[in-house]
Amino acid sequence: MAQHLQSTTTLHNGVHMPWFGLGVFKVEEGQELIEAVKHAIKHGYRSIDTAAIYGNEAGVGQAIAEALQENGLKREELFITSKVWNADLGYEETLAAFDTTMNKLGLDVLDLYLIHWPKAGKYKGAWRAMEELYAAGRILAIGVSNFQIHHLQDLMQDAQVKPMVNQVEYHPRLTQEELKAFCEQHGIQLEAWSPLMQGELLDNPLLTEIASSKGKSVAQIILRWDLQNGVVTIPKSTKAQRIIENADLFDFELSTEEMQRISSLNGNVRVGPDPDHFDF
């Protein structure tokens, strides 16, 4: 369980991944992005999550370079994630896409590389390329995103290396209990994207009640629920105060009853695409 902002979980290959990080989905290239990433690192974040399709890897790379210099940090102290997009799935395509990502980020080694979506007939070739990059030491950990149980089973039939992470939509209205249990059984770390359901949960009466009783925000309650469930979480924000507030999760705890009440909000409701019907 995470004890502080820089606490890590150990992936099945021994790599240490921070429990908490900053996501930059839908944050456009530019100074706002750069300042958000730098602000997060300055205030103790050590994990930054981007993707090729976000179109902001160059800005993230610039922010990382500046933050390392300004804060006296070593590159090894940060954990950087990116993802290969659907159009680049396939063995040769993924190798080329990875080089493009690394050039934009300005990095020699990537901490975690994910297949963004389980595009039918394409992800096994991509995984073979990622296994090769992992064996060569260019990536420290490899994983997937938005994979359901049947996708994971299919991938692992032929994989030489088991995925270390599965990043999925995860929040109190979509608890994905069966998927979570499967990942735990196979040593695959679950990671939450859209943990705040893109803001749709912030007015929820139950969460508001619990937040009030703890003297915390609803966002903090949800993010704490993630961590106590053993799920890595990467909320997005570009606002300095919100970046700090989102990470203020380590001076309180949710009781077993509170955890269960929050989980009872599950309705299998998605704000993002259904992985079984997403073919971009």
In words, what does this structure look like?
By secondary structure, this protein is α/β, with parallel strands linked by helices. The chain has one domain (8-264): NADP-dependent oxidoreductase domain (TIM Barrel, Alpha-Beta Barrel). Helices cover 39% and strands 15% of the residues. The longest helix is centred in the first third of the chain and has 15 residues, at 57-71. The chain starts with 7 loop residues before the first strand and ends in a 17-residue tail after the last helix. The mean pLDDT is 97. This is Aldo/keto reductase.
Notable features of this structure?
TIM Barrel, two-stranded antiparallel sheet, alpha/beta, 280 residues, 15% strand, Aldo/ket_reductase_CS, single chain, Aldo/keto reductase, eight-stranded parallel β-sheet, 10 strands
Helix proportion: 25-40%
Distance between the termini: 36 Å
User: How many helices does DSSP assign?
Assistant: 10
Spatial arrangement of strands, main beta sheet: 3-4-5-6-7-8-9-10
Give the CATH H-level superfamily.
NADP-dependent oxidoreductase domain
> Sheet bearing the most strands, described?
8 strands, parallel
CATH architecture: Alpha-Beta Barrel
